[in-house]
Amino acid sequence: MQVINAFTVDVEDYFHVSAFERHIPRAAWAQQAQRVETSTDRVLAALEKRGTFGTFFTLGWVAERYPQLIRRIVAQGHELASHGYDHTRVTQMTPEVFRADITKTKRLLEDIAGTEVIGYRAPTFSFTKDNQWVYEILAEAGYRYSSSIAPVRHDLYGIPDAPRHAYQAPSGIMEVPISTVRIASHNLPCSGGGFFRLYPYRLTRWCFERLNVREGKPCIFYMHPWEIDPDQPRQRQLSFRTKFRHYLNLDRVAPRLDRLLKDFAWNRMDRIFLAA
């Protein structure tokens, strides 16, 4: 039986990323070149070409400014989910601020799209061992699942010893971690994002085949619209590491994405993990 994988998109613009927050403050976001609508439409076109559906974790900040984009996402058969309002990491929030953020964003997305929002992904996968109170608040707000944990070691995020596959978190919320492959005693991240641009495509395909065939588990792939936009404005004041992570192989994403959509079977998060 063929394993169906989850295709996900974090709908945010290039200037929303956490690595840029010291260089492009929130007060300056509206003055930046806005490219999220065009780049998200490119992702939608790539999915339509292959008859594929996915889940779009969307910032409230984007939804307020591009409501027609949100309606196009839903009209084309994709799942609309929450990425929080303005990409503030959960590690920077109190429980009260988190509750206000996820409630505001859920209502905003639902009002625009006319469909229920039940999925959530924390900006920069910022669920940690120290903020497990998030699950009770998610359940109270009406969410049913989260995809906010990376079971890896990383300087910006990660819970290395977290379960590698979907599991029942506190308060009945299903947590669906991003995908890794177990190599010796380490988890190799292979879900997408910068790793999709860094790895040769053959390595990504090997990882996904290993998960599907050897483990019989779905892969959770994620990307950002700005990753299919090689012409986005370049920021000059960034460190070498941030430039490398953000700009590496942007011009290769479109053809790699088409191969990925062709080589594997894909669907929405809700249909894969909540269908039962």
Question: What's the layout of helices and strands?
Answer:
Layout: E1 5-11, H1 36-49, E2 55-58, H2 60-65, H3 67-75, E3 79-82, H4 95-113, E4 119-120, H5 134-141, E5 145-146, E6 167-168, E7 174-175, E8 180-183, E9 186-189, H6 194-198, H7 201-214, E10 220-223, H8 240-247, H9 253-263, E11 266-267, H10 269-273
Parallel strand pairs: 1-2, 1-10, 1-11, 2-3, 4-5, 5-7
Antiparallel strand pairs: 6-7, 8-9
Helix pairs in contact: 4-5
Number of helices: 10
Name of the top-level CATH class: Alpha Beta
Helix content: 25-40%
Tell me the series of helices and strands, N- to C-terminal.
EHEHHEHEHEEEEEHHEHHEH
What share of residues are in beta strands? 5-15%
Largest beta-sheet characterization? 5 strands, parallel
> What is the third-level CATH name, the topology?
TIM Barrel
Beginning-to-end CA distance, first to last residue: 17 Å
Rg (C-alpha, Å):
17 Å
Say how many strands there are: 11
- Shape estimate: globular
The residue ranges in which pLDDT falls below 50 over 5 or more consecutive positions are: none
How many structurally independent domains?
1
